[in-house]
Specification:
The protein is an alpha+beta fold. The protein contains 4 helices and 3 strands. The chain has a single domain, classed as GIY-YIG endonuclease (3-Layer(aba) Sandwich). A hairpin with a 5-residue loop joins strand 1 and strand 2. The protein is flat, with a radius of gyration of 18 Å. The termini are far apart.
């Protein structure tokens, strides 16, 4: 019984990685960029796609069209958490995701993400 308690405690103390991931269609090279406070749960994205309930309709449509075998799931970057002082992990994760969106530009023909307008931007 002590071993069971020890394993529970180790699980509770385990560091849960947060970060940015991509889902890539290897057939047409389109990508979806996302972030999660728990990268261990990235299989939830695959599950949603398999069930036909992913929130990104373009990605869901191509998942069904091309088949699961052409999609790969990759972690792009793990959030490095500050050891000292105040650290807002959610805000830092938003910035990390924005960095990757800016770098990869997965919009329109290049990907599945929707490009968000920033305050002050004008519609084309």
């Amino acid at each position: 019984m002590d071993r069971k308690k020890e394993l529970k405690q180790l699980y509770k103390e385990a560091e849960i990685p947060a970060g940015v991931y991509q889902i890539k269609n290897t057939s047409n090279q389109k990508v979806f960029i996302g972030s999660s406070m728990n990268l261990n749960g990235m299989n939830g994205q695959r599950f949603q796609l398999e069930m036909g309930s992913h929130r990104n309709k373009k990605l869901q449509q191509e998942w069904q069209e091309f088949g699961a075998e052409v999609f790969i799931f990759e972690v792009l970057e793990i959030l490095k958490k500050k050891e000292e002082g105040y650290f807002d992990a959610r805000e830092a994760l938003k910035k990390l995701e924005a960095k990757w969106l800016d770098h990869l530009q997965p919009f329109g023909e290049r990907g599945y993400n929707e490009q968000k307008l920033h305050p002050g931007d004008r519609c084309p």
